[in-house]
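so i finally got all the pieces together for this one. its two components total, 223 residues if u count the protein bits. some of the lines might not be protein, just check the labels. i wanna see the whole assembly predicted at once instead of chain by chain like last time, that was a mess tbh
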Amino acid sequence: RKEVEQDPGPFNVPEGATVAFNCTYSNSASQSFFWYRQDCRKEPKLLMSVYSSGNEDGRFTAQLNRASQYISLLIRDSKLSDSATYLCVVKLRGAQKLVFGQGTRLTINP
Amino acid sequence: EPEVTQTPSHQVTQMGQEVILRCVPISNHLYFYWYRQILGQKVEFLVSFYNNEISEKSEIFDDQFSVERPDGSNFTLKIRSTKLEDSAMYFCASSVVGDTEAFFGQGTRLTVV
């Protein structure tokens, strides 16, 4: 089983739509959770950390369900500039390495 | 805004040659990392470095690889004898402490021919 699993997509949605991504992780010792975005041939950029109580940053909302080992990202009122690959990332307790999912590709269409 | 910088942006090398990839982490960060991404694949952890020594490494990081912090600012990844399968994007990253988010440099695209 993959350590971090994401639907690779691609997701094609119209501008202004709401889109949701899901991610599951296999290791219950996972302690820290993040969403990064990656544009084509660029570096991963931190979008937001994911907290146990769920958190929101503008149009972006992240949720964590530790019991189901499941993380989600919701993007509201999507913009053309949201087109990217979204990476689900976890860090195990006591470890420094980030474990990446394979990413979900999103294209926002005008 | 402080950022991680990497040089060169692209390096082409012949199989069997040694390469050194360079990184300048964010100045107040204490943890430094190398990751790689083979084209079309996910980002993979190579090594983490703290207090002038390797703190964690993956199976990929074998004897062909080494890291060094030769001075107060640079952090380098050396590949001793490159193979075709080493062709990838190599990302340097840094974090304030070990359990917080990491910030990535723009990457070095390594092409082994």
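Chain A has a mean pLDDT of 94.
The radius of gyration of chain A is 13 Å.
anyway lmk what u think
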